[in-house]
What does this fold into?
Amino acid sequence: MSTPRHFLGLDDIPASELRAILDEAHKRKKARAGLSKGAIDADAPCDGKTLALIFEKSSTRTRFSFDMGMRQLGGSSITATANDMQLGRGETVDDTAKVLSRFVDGIMLRANSHDTLTELARNASVPVINGLTDRSHPCQIMADLQTLEEQGRDLNGLRLTWVGDGNNVAVSFAHAAAKFGFNLTISTPQGYAVPGQELSLARGAGAKITVTENPMEASKDADVVIADTFVSMGDKDADKRLADLAPYEVTDALMSKADKDALFLHCLPAHRGEEVSASVIDGPQSVVFDEAENRLHAQKAIIKWCFDR
Ligand code: CP
Ligand code: NVA
It folds into this structure.
């Protein structure tokens, strides 16, 4: 049996494969124009396939986009929270992987710890997809890049600025910078930096990343400004985080430093008045709802890629 094709992180998938996934996402989105949301794509590439969707943490976008994505691809999905499963009572990840591999054709996991994801993938004989871990959120970034391209932006050389916490989403942007050739500036306060080993990994793979503590300086002439919550799922000390990160709110003043045609991205859920002002996220430069919709299209291309081997 061949090794399954997992989608665990943008760092370990070749740039040409990621490019092909994005192209497929654009193509499939266009092909659905005029169809109702529940209609099946003409080629139904996942006919007869079922994807398990397992959640250790909350989700709106990931849950609904994977479920609808499988339906549109002509397949089906089964959703469970880890607490519904014996996994939540101490059954090992290893045994869970082996058992689920006998029932379903693929597994999407949203995990507290990235180690849980890699252990699942090591022991599964079907593809495993990262639906967010404490380390990374690669499906999100594929949707974000699709959004920028459909806005007519060429990723190569584009100036993206991340402002706020150096979290899981920021790490996936760093990984993506090495694969898609955009320039990434990351602005975080002390104590909230993207982990040094992730920056080294991305830079070692060719990513052009600048790090600065000053968010205004970071946003100067940016083509895209990106924010995310200051308190990610599983983070402790919410009050301290909100206080430490408050100067990193993406406000109109900060957006005025960026290019006049700059776009604003946020993976959602958002907290208006914390990491972003309502006038920015609900304003003309924001493409956050296209970004949310593209979770569906990008993930369909990811699922197909996983099953295509
Ligand atoms: N952006 C994102 O992953 O959203 P959910 O947590 O709702 O899945
Ligand atoms: N950084 C956030 C992303 C949510 C989609 C979190 O991990 O909670």
Observations:
- The first strand starts at residue 50 and ends at 55.
- Residues 84 and 302 are 26 Å apart (CA to CA).
- The chain has a mean pLDDT of 98.
